[in-house]
Amino acid sequence: MKLALSTIAVGLLLGSTGLSAQSVNIGPGGISVDPRTQRERAIDREIRREERWRERERYERRRNWRAERGRDCRTITETRETPRGEVRRTTRVCD
Fold first, then answer.
1. Could you list the residue range(s) of the whole structural domain that residue 73 is in?
2. pLDDT tens across 3-49, in order?
3. Is 17 helix (H, G, I), strand (E, B) or coil?
4. In a domain, 9, yes or no
5. 38: buried, middle or exposed (CB in 10 Å: 19+, 13-18, 0-12)?
6. What are phi and psi of 70, to 5 degrees?
7. Structural contact between residues 21 and 35, judged by C-beta atoms closer than 8 angstroms
8. Which of 22, 45, 47, 76 is deepest in the core (most CB within 10 A)?
9. Is residue 16 in a domain?
10. Residue 93, in any domain of the structure
11. Please, are residues 31 and 10 in contact by the beta-carbon 8 Å criterion?
């Protein structure tokens, strides 16, 4: 009886939220519903990707700075256009 009621409750929950939810996950922590649109999730992925890129660039700059002390270096700034705006990337080039 309890199993039947819980199955019906889950079915109603999934049926009623399926219209507005973009993602329904059932896992060990229970049921989770993600109401974001596909575009919003794509923007969040892009933001996380840019954050990882910035961290990697920061590490590379720090490592290169330590290795390049005392050499003749110049700074190059590249600007690229993304759907959310301009992204500037600054790199050091040593000759």
1. 33-95
2. 666 677 676 666 554 455 578 888 888 888 888 888 888 999 999 99
3. helix
4. no
5. exposed
6. 90, -5
7. yes
8. 22
9. no
10. yes
11. yes
